[in-house]
Model the fold of this input.
Amino acid sequence: MCGIIGITGREDAVQGILAGLKRLEYRGYDSAGLVTNDGRDLRVTKRAGKLENLTRALDSQPMTTSTGIGHTRWATHGAPNDRNSHPHLDPSGRVAVVHNGIIENYQALKAGLGDVRFASDTDTEVTAHLVARELDAQDAPDLLLAVRRVVAQLRGAYSICFVAVDDPTTIVVAKHEAPLIVAHADGVGYCASDVAALIDHTRDVAALLDGQIARISPEGVEVFDVDGNEAEPHRYTVDWDLDAAEKKGYEHFMLKEIHEQPQAVHDTLLDRHTSPSPGEPPRLHLDELRIDERELARIDKVFIVACGTSLHAGMVGKLAIEHWAGIPVDVEVASEFRYRDPIVDPHTLVIALSQSGETVDTIAAASHARDQRAPVISIVNVVGSTLAREADGVIYTHAGPEVAVASTKAFTTQIVGTLLLGLYLAQVRGRMYATETADILTRLQQIPDAITQALNLDQEIRELAQRYHDVDYTMFIGRHAGLPIAMEGALKLKEISYLHAEAFPAGEMKHGPIALIEPGTLVIALAPAGHVFAKMVSNIQEVKARGASILAIGTDGSTADLKEHADHVLTLPEPPHELAGPVLSVIPLQLFSYHVATLRGEDVDQPRNLAKTVTVE
Ligand code: AGP
Done:
């Protein structure tokens, strides 16, 4: 979604801003712009479309300045054109703003300004007008005070940054329900919506907390609360290096991230089972736990809340928690959770799953649960993100930065995270012998090698993609742990190739969806060996009988049978545990989507209309 980078204190601020915006491209955007402040003028340059358009525009008017803010916009209010791109100015051109999020009361705020002309259709522009009016009303203009007064009037979600011509080396920023990072290194002040934009400059950063406002200058960063008192942000050190954010010879980030899965899963499993003190038997533990284990032992119901790919990982988590911990689990789309009346009380555990830890729908679902005094455990990839900070317990998926919009390594590590949580809940509830837990954990260590074997199917999958990349409609079917993977396979295909794809529980086909099958329809069936395999074979026969072309994803123990019914069979190694099967069976589907999309010439890493981190409702 939108990206922000602000720099003050280096002569080549424009180059730094452009480099930062480049690092934020992966978030998804449809226009880009920046403003520079030389103390005489605010100069805004902005263009619809890709960052190259902005860079080209700047080539014709080179600028040297030490202070500026840049933005990539993902349109919400107003079309993605030059006019609506950020930054926005007040009518006198003295104040500029860039903003991520949505100002929900912008129309009321505009009305309050009286008969004023606006230069854009955005919800953002009004804030520049308001800050300029505040400055006009002050005897000694103070940008921090003006911003503080304005943000007190805002409703909605924002990370927002202002510069004013009267204060040429200062950037003032405010945060509410949208991430904003600040930093200071070597006499330069920075702000950004995402650490990826700052990693070239420093690893020591601070995430502002909701309601905090910061003044950034070459001298340092000062953080305040809404009342103007000094406040402490969440300080941390980024633990991944620049290499992790580069393509390292792969054509796309998505392909690189698919191939990083053995390492990502290995890292996620590492050091989970250790002795609390010498001589004591090993126990599974969470990365962060701010809740008494005895409280978790009394849990009688679980909700898993998440969006998109993370939701699919949550569906696997449901199977694991019910199987191992014996607690009923509901998996719910996060954006629906708080708008009904979920029965949540202090004995309900809510698990929030998110790669970014900044998905606003998931954050809102988790805080709704906390309002009802339910403990929340998050499974997140980004250390220090909002969901990690606000949960009572955290499991980090050590996938490293995921840049491609289409989530791959975050998904497989999330599944591993939910398996660990299922075992952990079984442990605190006394549902498993320590030896059983240890045995399962030992077996899970085999997953990285098994993923490597699955990746070896790449050439075969590419040939299948060659054959099927023009089909208009693909149906995915699965049962039990295969169903979330069928859903994930369909999501991956539609989000990067823009082809219609749907997933169904294989047993539901005969209740309606089978009517869609006609000769040549591609059906991708998840059919590993296991307790539902025979049922899957029946469902495959049903669609085959109606003319579908079947691509079956099997395992060593199931492919001999599958070859009798399917047109193509991809054979995966047998997983070390049936519940770990999804980590393997999703690999061919990730590769299939990737190859279909590249063969169709689509922008794999930045698919149309999508954003990496969805910070608006
Ligand atoms: C995945 O390929 C998607 N881009 C999307 O569904 C994503 O999983 C979803 O927006 C949730 O994001 P999160 O994991 O960061 O919360």
User: Anything to note?
Assistant: Residues 307-310, 354-356, 359, 362, 405-407, 495, 610, 613-614 surround 2-deoxy-2-amino glucitol-6-phosphate (CB under 6 Å).
